[in-house]
Structure formats: structure tokens, C-alpha cells
Amino acid sequence: MFEQISESFRLALSKVRFVDDEKAIKNALDVLKKALLKADVHHKVTKDLLLSIETDMKQKSIGQKQFLDAIKSNLTQILTAPGNQGFVYAQVAPTIVLMAGLQGSGKTTTTIKLANYLKLRKKKVLVAACDLQRLAAVEQLRQLCEANEIDLFFIENETNPIKVATEALNKAKTGLYDVLLVDTAGRLAIDEALMSEIKDVKTALNPHEIFYVADAMSGQDGVKSASKFNDVLQISGVILSKFDSDSKGGVAISIAKQLGIPLRFVGIGEKVADLESFIPDRIVSRIMGEGDLATLVEKTSMIIDEKEAKRLNQKIKKGQFNFNDFLEQMESVKKLGSMKSLIGMIPGLTNVANQIKDIDLENSKEIVHIKALINSMTKKERENPDLLNNSRKRRLAAGAGLSQMEVNRFLKQFENASKLAKKFSGKGGAKGLANMLSQANMNRPR
Ligand code: GDP
């Protein structure tokens, strides 16, 4: 997420490695300043950050460790605006969230991503289609909800967003939903009519949160429009979409400080899993190349059901891990988001993540072949790989459009992998997993 900034921080730090004197600190601060400005961090925010690091350093003995601590604490401070972090549930359900943003900012996509994020956390989510300005908006939302099994409330041919919003709230209450996400109208630019419409919806719903979706690529313009929305609506959080296209990352560093509103999530791709919560100390840890285990453990614990993990472990132990289990596991891993971002969360591997190309679990040639192969198997064959004799393999190759050699290679790989897993599971694999899960439950953020 923050490759460029992360790299510059490392460079600045290297300047104080050998010569721990004031000159080295000054050099390092210079490197840091250039890097922050180059990454489009707002000049005033850059100035403030450097000043507070310098002040901190004056009160400490000079050294790389102290410099590192000063950067970390001041950066965390800059990223932390008063307000909530991550997603916060209201004391009495449903938590009502108004989603606002300009047209094309990614508001609709982000609403679905957020619904999915909450669904993965076992919350019952209802989305309300109140963007009645753009003709295709309701249809777009309907398709996205259907594809991702998310409940949608809409009224056919209705033109009054307040009516839709209030009826959606009734449904959320009677249907015992945990969260109601309300998609509101966007325009190409901020205008009176847009503002008064959203204001009316706000008054009707009295939402707990108002999230403003800002396009990261619009940089400082995005900050300005967020500020205008804030003047009228008092937004409680910003979500930066399309952060994957803005390699500079500066706007994420400045936005909380500039607006006085916390950045709550960032969108890092077009897929539904591509949304990450923005929790300042975790982000700083990632920028400093120290990874973010808390988020990684939380993510994995969400998709691994403890009972299911134990069942799978038993199967592996008995050598009964089959192709159905394999497909299921692949689907689960997909829910975690991109491989590159997962690797980046492992302490020590942030650098590695910056250097690798992402592995596309959905479309990579290898995965597509494997899926085609498994789909060509009969139910019995999937459950019992031992059934696959030569004539069955020939049939599979024809069915999946692969050569026999490719089929053999994959089956061999699968056999080796399950042998390895069996060996590993003997060494307290289930216990290790259980430990990890109980820790994740303790650390689980809101
Ligand atoms: P809306 O008009 O604000 O509702 O915008 P949409 O949700 O329709 O999004 C506009 C375009 O931005 C779509 O093509 C989305 O796929 C794309 N988009 C949204 N969020 C992201 C993101 O985080 N990364 C990338 N790369 N594209 C995104």
C-alpha cells in the first residue's frame, strides 16, 4: 500500500545508522522531507511532522532507535484524528451508515465492499438503494448485491430517497439487521440540490456514521470536496477508494490531519475483498516495514471456522484430504484479499511484498487449469483421489483441455502437498491453529 513512502523511510533511517550525531539526523530529516513531498503528502502536514520529530529528538539522546521511535509516534499522531477507528457498532442495532461521495468516486463499489467486510464478520447487513439520481445506480447495486449474496432494499420506480431510506430502516429494525448501509446520490460536482437531498436523508435516518468516499487519485481535490461535504453533513469518516492506483500514498498520510476526520478504510482494488481498515498504529507499523500481524491474524480467523479447521486437520492426519477440500480452501483464501497485501503484513516480508507481482488466485493460468481439472472429476473421484487410474486420467485431460502430462503433474503435486500436510499436522498443527485463533479473538478489533 505504501511502497514508495516505506522505501523513503528506510532510506532516511539508513542515514543515521553509522553516524549518530546531529548532522546525521539533519540529513535524515532532509531525506524524509523530500520523500514525503514527493509522495504528495501535503506540505503543511510534512512540515508539522518533521518539526515534531525534530523536537522529540532534541529531548532524547541521538540514535537510530530514538529516531525510529520519534517517527513512529509522530506519524501515528498525524494519522489519528478524533473519532472512531475501523468499524464501530452502535449500542443498539442497527448501526446506520450513510455513504456519500461524488459520482465515479467508487461509492457504490465501496458500499458493497463494506457490506462484505461486515458479512465476513458474521454481521447481518442490509443495503438501501437511495441513489435515485443516476438511472443505472439501483440496477448496479442490485447486481452487485446479488453476486455477493447481500440483502438489498429498493423500491421499484420510486423517486423519493427519503421514502426508500425510512422504509429501509423499518426493514432493518424488524428484520433484526446489525447494520444498514445507505447508498446516496452522487453528482459530478458538489451542488446545492445534492447537498440538500443528502441532508434530508440524514435528518430522516439520524445515522451513527457518515462515510465520505474519496477517490485517492483525485489527491488534494478529493480532500477539498470531503471538506465541503463535511461542512454540510459533519462526516465521521473518510474511505479512500482506488488507493491501488495511487502509488504515492501521500493523500492517506495527510487526510486525517487536514480534515480532522479519521480515515477509516482504504479501497485497494476492484474486487469485493479489496477493502482494508485503516488503523493508524497498524499502518505505521506497515510503513516502517514491520508488518501487521494483528490484521493478518484477524483476517485469517474470520475465514477459518475453528470447528471446520479441526475437521480438516483430522482429515489431513488420516490422509483423507481430497479435491473438494482443496477447492474449498482455495475459495476461502480468495476471501482474504490479494496475496501481495497478505504477504506485506508478515513482519520482515514487507520488502518482499513490494517486490513481487501479485498472484491472481482467480485468473492465474495454473489455478484455472486446476479448477477445470477438478470440475471434470466425478463426485467419487473428488472424494477419493486414489480412484484416478490411467483411463480416468485420460478422460480428465480431455474434459479439462489439458495434456496427460499436465494432469499427472498436478496430481503428483496434490499428492506431495497432502503428504507434507499430513506430516505437518502430526506436529501439533491443530494446536498451533487453535492458539492462533484464541489470540485473534482476544485481539479482535471492532
Ligand atoms: P460511484 O459512481 O461513486 O458509485 O462509483 P462506482 O462504485 O461505480 O465506481 C467507479 C469505478 O471505480 C468502477 O469501475 C469501480 O470498479 C472502480 N473502483 C472503485 N473502487 C476501486 C478501488 O479501490 N480500486 C480500483 N482500482 N477501482 C475501484
Automatic annotation (TrEMBL):
Family: Belongs to the GTP-binding SRP family. SRP54 subfamily.
Matching PROSITE patterns: SRP54
Chief site of localization: cytoplasm
Domain SRP54-type proteins GTP-binding, chain residue ranges per copy: 262-275
Cell compartments where the protein resides: Cytoplasm
Keywords per UniProt: Cytoplasm, GTP-binding, Hydrolase, Nucleotide-binding, Ribonucleoprotein, RNA-binding, Signal recognition particle
Protein name: signal-recognition-particle GTPase
Catalysed reaction, written as an equation: GTP + H2O = GDP + phosphate + H(+)
Classification via Gene3D superfamilies: P-loop containing nucleotide triphosphate hydrolases, Signal recognition particle SRP54, nucleotide-binding domain, Signal recognition particle, SRP54 subunit, M-domain
UniProt entry tagged with the keyword tRNA processing: no
Presence of the UniProt keyword Plastid in the record: no
InterPro entries attached to this UniProt entry: AAA+_ATPase, P-loop_NTPase, Signal_recog_part_SRP54_M_sf, Signal_recog_particl_SRP54_hlx, Signal_recog_particle_SRP54_M, SRP, SRP/SRP_N, SRP54
EC number per UniProt: 3.6.5.4
Domain of life: Bacteria
